């Protein structure tokens, strides 16, 4: 009797599992018709400009997340479908995506319908600070960076003191810019640490961050950089040096990164005769580095292959080191890409020579390269 009851229970369990599977499959395969030619159940790609849609061929849904400057009422579709399939609207057509749009795929007398949805990313660029306004920022480099961002992005710029930072205040913000510098310590202001949970949530949900100077360590604070290798930190009084300092975007890398968007997205960054990017001319230099030491990743010492290993382990692509460093020692610019936990992307710039204000009052001949790399980084992140 006991065996009969067990077998009956097992049979009921199997039947319930089969019913659940069938129900789930039907839900997953809505708008997918096995009787249609297989070509109608596949749209290979749909693009608007450089942005590719996410296509769910089972449900027949095409989703776009487009850059903030996109005019949804007039976009051009670039559609790739199997041979013999006619799509309507046709590839190259200008359409209005302010509301869902039906896309039809047809071959012979068979037809399938898709729905295209689109949303535009928020468009504000936020500079966050422990000061209450740009005017009250104490450090001249931080103040210059904030003022540059305001001048560059105009009506899209917003200054948010940490005291006012909430997840709601970031709803219209696409890129958060946090630059920090001081002397005598590399510690971040307590006000920034108090907002750790808010900025972690922002990054998890897809927000983008540009971290500069000592603020590169904020990638550790919010848990995105788990390497523990951000150990080269300078915060001294600086010194006079007559030379020009440059950064290397790939000359001495195993994998050259000089075509990365931070060097050419909006502004093409100028190079010297060796192919390096100059960032500061002769004069007084603070040299406040925030760099990663990748020595522990492979065999003892520094060697080629460390950058690839760092990316493999921590999802951080190395984009720059000081010029002349030939052993993939110490990254100064890293892009931490989105992953299964953090939907957003971080670019962290810790090269000490990329100063925003010259302490001795001189004009930095290469200021446009610094501004250009930051501008390219923000504009690139704005499309992610």
Task: Summarize the structure in words.
There is one protein chain. By secondary structure, this protein is an alpha+beta fold. The chain folds into two domains: 38-120, Immunoglobulin-like (Sandwich); 124-381, 3-Layer(aba) Sandwich (Rossmann fold). Residues 1-30 have low confidence and may be disordered. It is globular. The strands form six sheets. It has a nine-stranded mixed sheet with strand order 12-11-13-14-23-22-21-17-18, sandwiched between helices. The longest helix has 27 residues, at 2-28. The protein has helices at 2-28, 140-153, 190-193, 196-204, 218-221, 306-314, 367-381; strands at residues 45-48, 51-52, 54-56, 61-66, 75-76, 78-80, 86-88, 94-95, 101-107, 110-120, 124-129, 157-161, 173-180, 208-213, 232-233, 239-241, 245-248, 277-280, 283-285, 290-291, 316-322, 333-336, 346-349.
Can you summarize the main beta sheet? 9 strands, mixed
Q: From the 3D coordinates, which CATH architecture of the largest domain would you assign?
A: 3-Layer(aba) Sandwich
Rough outline: globular
Strand content: 25-35%
Task: Tell me the count of domains.
Answer: 2
Name of the CATH class of the largest domain: Alpha Beta
* Strand order, largest beta sheet: 12-11-13-14-23-22-21-17-18
Total count of strands: 23
| Helical content (DSSP H or I, runs of 4+) | 10-25%
InterPro entries: DUF4960 (IPR032526)
Pfam families: DUF4960
Domain DUF4960: 127-381
Protein name: DUF4960 domain-containing protein
